[in-house]
Write a structure and sequence with these properties.
This protein is of the alpha/beta class and 354 residues long. It folds into 2 domains: 200 residues, Isopropylmalate Dehydrogenase (3-Layer(aba) Sandwich); 138 residues, Isopropylmalate Dehydrogenase (3-Layer(aba) Sandwich), CATH 3.40.718.10. The strands form 2 sheets. It has a 10-stranded mixed sheet with strand order 2-1-3-12-11-4-5-10-8-9, sandwiched between helices. The structure holds nicotinamide-adenine-dinucleotide.
């Protein structure tokens, strides 16, 4: 089994350096047969060869069984590099990674802003407002005059159906509740289509309860009664925003793992961005990328019916939880003084490989 690894930008190299030794140790101890192939991507690739997703990286991703990537900080790129392909756009459109799965949960020993939360946001990942990836050709954003800027938001029945199905299937393996979040009171056609489609798919899952919330109210309900939510299904931008809210309510954006899943490829990538404010200082929390890597193993285990991959994911999650349970291990985002590297070493030491 081959995984492509791309560090990308900002804190990418440091969280990757804390994560990969844990994966390698699991690979060796459990004989998983995973081969890691490091590829260039992001600003470093731009500086070295003038492309943000070099052809060699694209080819390696095509041949890989899974991909682990760091965050992409295009907002900080120089102007010419900003015009180049956004590596996130490339991965999500090239592999049609339509489901961005973003869990958030409170954990023993981790200071949180709410008492209890254990939910998963299933975010549609290829449509919505994302102008650089929601069109077949051209951009979803354009300026008819220098004083007018327009953005097209795309919602399709097919896109809504497949994300809804992913959400209901996820809920079936959890507490059997789906909450769809939309703005159909105002966006009557686009979110109306999303709402109606999710409701129709819901009829295929009679054992799963379906509720709905308008997105602005959803933010209030998530703060007021976070323990009630199991799976949230929503469109692209709403999912992006709500998942940052939920991960921060559960303790920190640095805890927020995620996978981007399509029919043929799965990419592990933390929910957060490149965090330029702390990059290179050893202050970042690698938990999000560690958990993303666990989610990749778990998802590939499910797809290939390989119990050893599921077992490796379970060991990774247990080690991370064990380390987080002791505040002495916490990085600054959780109020502690540990370093990125120190946290990674603690997780390595906490792996139960007997
Ligand atoms: P961000 O997520 O990078 O940072 C928001 C805040 O959270 C910052 O204070 C940061 O220090 C903190 N933070 C993030 N990850 C952390 C971690 N692992 N440990 C501790 N603290 C952490 O959001 P931003 O500052 O708005 O964006 C920076 C860049 O990242 C932008 O270029 C943006 O476009 C990009 N971005 C990329 C992705 C992605 O690649 N998936 C996602 C979001 C933002």
């Amino acid at each position: 089994m081959k995984f492509v690894v791309m560090e990308n930008d900002g804190i990418g190299p440091e969280i990757m350096a804390a994560t990969l030794p844990v994966l390698r140790r699991l690979n060796d101890a459990l004989g998983l047969g995973i081969e890691l192939q490091h590829c260039l991507g992001g600003l470093k690739a731009w500086e070295q060869i003038g492309e943000t997703v070099p052809q060699a990286t694209r080819d390696a991703c095509d041949a890989a069984d899974g991909v682990i990537v760091g965050p992409v900080g295009t907002y900080e790129y120089p102007d010419e590099a900003r015009q180049a392909t956004n590596p996130n756009r490339f991965m999500r459109t090239h592999f049609d990674l339509f489901a961005n799965v973003r869990p958030a949960k409170t954990r023993p020993g981790v200071p949180a802003r709410v008492d209890h939360m254990d939910l998963v946001i299933v975010r549609e990942n290829t449509e919505g407002f994302y102008a650089d990836r929601n069109m077949f050709q051209g951009s979803g954003e354009f300026m008819p005059t220098e004083d007018v800027a327009l953005s097209v938001r795309k919602i399709t029945r097919q896109g809504s159906e497949r994300i809804a199905r992913h959400a209901f299937q996820t809920a079936q393996e959890r507490r059997k509740k789906v909450c769809m979040v939309h703005k159909a009171n105002v966006l009557k056609m686009t979110d109306g289509l999303f709402r109606d489609t999710v409701a129709v798919v819901g009829r295929e899952f009679p054992g799963v309860e379906l509720e709905e919330l308008i997105v602005d109210a959803a933010t209030a309900h998530l703060v007021r009664r976070p323990e009630d939510f199991d799976v949230i299904v929503t469109t692209n931008a709403f999912g992006d925003i709500l998942s940052d809210l939920c991960s921060e309510l559960s303790g920190s954006l640095g805890l927020a793992g995620s996978i981007n899943a399509g029919a043929g490829q799965v990419m592990a990538q933390a929910q957060h961005g490149s965090a330029p404010d702390i990059a290179g200082q050893g202050k970042s929390n690698p938990t999000a990328l560690l958990l993303s890597t666990g989610m990749l193993l778990e998802e590939l285990g499910r797809r290939t019916s390989r119990n050893d991959l599921a077992q490796a994911a379970g060991k990774l999650y247990a080690a991370v939880d064990g380390v987080l349970a002791d505040p002495v291990n916490h990085t600054p985002d959780l109020g502690g003084g540990n370093t990125t590297d120190g946290f990674g070493r603690a997780v390595l030491g906490a792996l139960d490989l007997d």
